[in-house]
């Protein structure tokens, strides 16, 4: 089974194998990555985390788990500009540095193994975690508690004061949406690190996961433009045009389509 098929097979399990699926994403970019071996090796990290955990009810162990990971050297990757290694789980486990989403995926897998209730939250710009029923969120990079005012501050720090905190910013994320976010992150990281073919792999996965936006089709169209594939670029621009609700964007897409050569069919 190739990595893409293995990835989707993980999503079809009940419950979905979120962490393993993310490892298969890494395997798509590096044939040397062995997800099943990494899953076995994670047992050592699980034991190291478990040894330092306090004796508390399971629903009070979310923050101690994240602090324990921090004690073991796991932290947010602050390297500028960020590299794909900040989102590829095999590299994050090796380096103990990663984006909040990658750190959150490791924490969620360890929580699952240690029977600690924990879910992911697709907060804008910074993936967060929550223990169900708690009145706060948790930063996967160190375990800081975030109450509503902290969330507003985090949002404003990243997007400015005009973006208001909304209820859907705090909703529990399902595995498919988490993996789609990871794929979008990797698409951007590969693109900004001059790896358009790798970015294309991620862009295709974003669309295969479903509920893609006009921005997702535009992102892939731009990759096809860079790779000089006008027919594929046209296909994605047309889909973006169908999905877009912004009249200015629709006008620009129409103009861009007009500058492309007509579809050519090879017999």
UniProtKB/TrEMBL annotation:
Pfam families: Transglut_core2 (PF13369). It comes from the Bacteria. Residues 41-183 form the Protein SirB1 N-terminal domain. Coiled coil: none annotated. InterPro entries: SirB1_N. PANTHER family: F-BOX ONLY PROTEIN 21, SI:DKEY-261L7.2. Belongs to the UPF0162 family. This is Protein SirB1 N-terminal domain-containing protein. It comes from Pseudomonas poae. The lineage of its organism: Bacteria, Pseudomonadati, Pseudomonadota, Gammaproteobacteria, Pseudomonadales.
